[in-house]
Design brief:
single chain; mainly alpha; 9 helices; globular
Length: 188
Amino acid sequence: MEIEKILKDSLDVFMKNIVAFIIGTLIALIGSILIVTIAPLFYGIVYMAVKGIKGEKVEIGDVFAGFKVPGAFVQSWIVVIVYLVLMIAGSLILGKYGAITAILLIYALPLMVMKGYSGSEALKENFELIQKYPVETLIVFIVFFVLNFIGSRIYIGALITFPLSEIGYTLAAKNLSGNGQPAVNIEG
């Protein structure tokens, strides 16, 4: 897995669908204020990434895929709840460095969307990939963590760096897991 190729491909997918990704991310960020919508809206951002990677036109409405794909609402919450538990445990153990536990779920949502997995299936394969490819996972995480850190320091930067990172994580999951053919279709 070449990080330079993932970065280039991520940027290409983002640029081809820049308006949809920026507005979709803005919707997800604003919609997350309601808390109950966090998981399905983040699922939607990853769904947008998968469509873009497949070369399909990404639409703003794709951000709502977590409400349209059967089971996605509940399954995305399974992943987010595990993420929150890991973040809290990490914070208790590592203090201010607890956010680093985010690496433990780097591929979960991408696998859920790409392969149509349940939350538990996505978590299982996510952990298997991290165990099998720890160095690659760490590199991908650090690159996109730094990108998001920089983006969060610029007022609107996260509208660019967050979807770019989700595209990157999805590409990495696709590369490491073999075929990453999406198993869901909400069109029509």
